[in-house]
Amino acid sequence: MKQGLFIVVSAPSGAGKSSICRKMLAVCPSIKFSISFTSRPPRPKEINGKDYYFISREDFRKRIKRGEFIEWVENYGHFYGTPWKTMEKYFQKGKDLLLDVEPRGAKKIKRKFKGGVFVFVLPPSRKELLKRLKKRGHESEPIIQARLAQAERELKEISWYDYIIFNKDLEKAVDQLRSIYIAEKCKMSGLRGEVKKFIKK
Hints:
201 residues, alpha/beta, 4-stranded mixed β-sheet, 9 strands, 47% helix, 20% strand
């Protein structure tokens, strides 16, 4: 069976990664979303089984021990992890997959799976990033400052990503991610089997 394509999207908190991914799924129904597990409580409008699988810290730790995650990290006292089952399903059915994963987890996925496409989303500026974090309104000032400090560390990971998107305008950023997806689907490396069949005929 022809292997599908998987795209991993990373970004500092507040860059708009989740919004881009949601809109990307709406305009490209052929690509499926890898739903991560988290031990944090859902934010307003988040839906269990759609945005994340929300579970307790105890349950998350048990899943870690059972080896259920390709990658997992702890951020601000909460666990986040990508389940092996999602990638197994992707490999078995040849489906295209979109993953929303922070840089530490993205690097682990890159080591374990070949053929992925890695995209890093940036806000227009550091000033705009701070503005977006404060606009959320549900986090304390110490948490906001911690997120900014982590953003600085994550920026050092940019060099190994395949593509960069500056999220100055949401619709344009989604269009750029969609363009990356379309271009990657047309690469010779992923179409060799079909090309050989065409030439033989």
